[in-house]
Amino acid sequence: MAASIFAAVPRAPPVAVFKLTADFREDGDSRKVNLGVGAYRTDEGQPWVLPVVKKVEQMIANDNSLNHEYLPILGLPEFRANASRIALGDDSPAIKENRVGSVQSLGGTGALRIGAEFLRRWYNGNNNTATPVYVSAPSWENHNSVFMDAGFKDIRTYHYWDAAKRGLDLQGLLNDMESAPESSIFILHACAHNPTGTDPTPEQWKQIAAVMKRRSLFPFFDSAYQGFASGSLDKDAWAVRYFVSEGFELFCAQSFSKNFGLYNERVGNLTVVGKDADNVQRVLSQMEKIVRTTWSNPPSQGARIVATTLSSPQLFDEWKGNVKTMADRVLLMRSELRSRLEALGTPGTWNHITEQIGMFSFTGLNPKQVEYMIKEKHIYLMASGRINMCGLTTKNLDYVAKSIHEAVTKIQ
Ligand SMILES: Cc1ncc(COP(=O)(O)O)c(C=O)c1O
């Protein structure tokens, strides 16, 4: 037999976060803890179907008016409108002026991909592959790959994390914006920056917006954790809304994976804010072409759940309560972990654990210490030292804190 036509295909490396979870599953040690996964867990370490989601799923199952016909290519209209509304706010001038459009997407990743494809095809000249795309250092690793796969050739990083002070490197970030070529694209985390858990303050966002406006840089917000940072949807959307109020044209990729716990339903939205209705409609007409050749038509279940919840005042309140339950548990785990590390006298400072926000914390553990945690303690975390606070429970906190203490004191 002739050799396979695929004989020369090299094996791609596994996706780190999924590999970590697979390793965790195979680990037979009863003390094992998974701090790697990017999903909410209850205090019992279990996935959580939000009560409001369960209720709405039942409503959908009992609604005989629904069917499985194709949706419009751009998605379920009531989902798109409501999703953009919670990003931009009820009284958004851009919505009132009819210059907001949206595309239902397969998760936040789908929204980033459709936005990236559109920008490569139509922004800053046709088939524009040379426009620099700036991603924070560090960032969610998929930002880089999504823009690369969309055809962008010049992906750069901008300063974000100051490891020494365990906080935002605002000056580095502003310097990078000052020296970026005009029209460069900047991917900005709307809130709860992944992986550092460190966001600019409103005052710092104002400085960032001022430089971006003066230098004509394009803001592409990634909003994957609205509600998770502060427990308040409005607070967590402050930056996006401020940029809109400053007159920016922008994109905002929204994920409902985390704040609705709908990870595998793939429900996301790309909000487009333009100068006027005509611009937005032309942009959407091109995005429709991109969707047609990408997934052709979006799935309805997740979009129906979100649309039904967001369009009923009572369900909306219930959902906000569910989001707050998740955000509060994260806050509690932060303070509990910090107080344990401080009580143990673990070398270093641990205030960053409670100062950081959202699902993740950048512990400051180095790769060798991470390896020790995994190999010796069966505690799984990303090589960057990022931990998912939801992996902590009242039952494993002591063990995790003692293990971090050991890792930091034994391994330099
Ligand atoms: C920063 C960031 N953006 C986007 C996403 C994409 O989420 P989704 O699963 O909805 O595609 C994630 C998920 O982990 C994320 O952390």
From TrEMBL:
GO CC, sorted alphabetically, is: cytosol
Q: What's one GO MF term for it?
A: L-cysteine transaminase activity
InterPro entries given in the database record = Aminotransferase_I/II_large (IPR004839), Asp_trans (IPR000796), NHTrfase_class1_PyrdxlP-BS (IPR004838), PyrdxlP-dep_Trfase (IPR015424), PyrdxlP-dep_Trfase_major (IPR015421), PyrdxlP-dep_Trfase_small (IPR015422)
Q: Which GO terms describe its biological process?
A: aspartate biosynthetic process
Q: Report the domain of life of the source organism.
A: Eukaryota
Q: Which cofactor does it need?
A: pyridoxal 5'-phosphate
Specify where it is mainly localized. Answer: cytoplasm
Q: Where in the cell is it found?
A: Cytoplasm
Q: E.C. number, please?
A: 2.6.1.1
- Which positions fall inside the Aminotransferase class I/classII large domain? 31-404
Q: Which reaction does it catalyse?
A: (2S)-2-aminobutanoate + 2-oxoglutarate = 2-oxobutanoate + L-glutamate; L-aspartate + 2-oxoglutarate = oxaloacetate + L-glutamate; L-cysteine + 2-oxoglutarate = 2-oxo-3-sulfanylpropanoate + L-glutamate; 3-sulfino-L-alanine + 2-oxoglutarate = 3-sulfinopyruvate + L-glutamate
Q: How does it assemble?
A: Homodimer.
UniProt lists the family membership as follows:
Belongs to the class-I pyridoxal-phosphate-dependent aminotransferase family.
The protein depicted here goes by the name Aspartate aminotransferase
Task: Point out the gene that encodes the protein.
Answer: GOT1
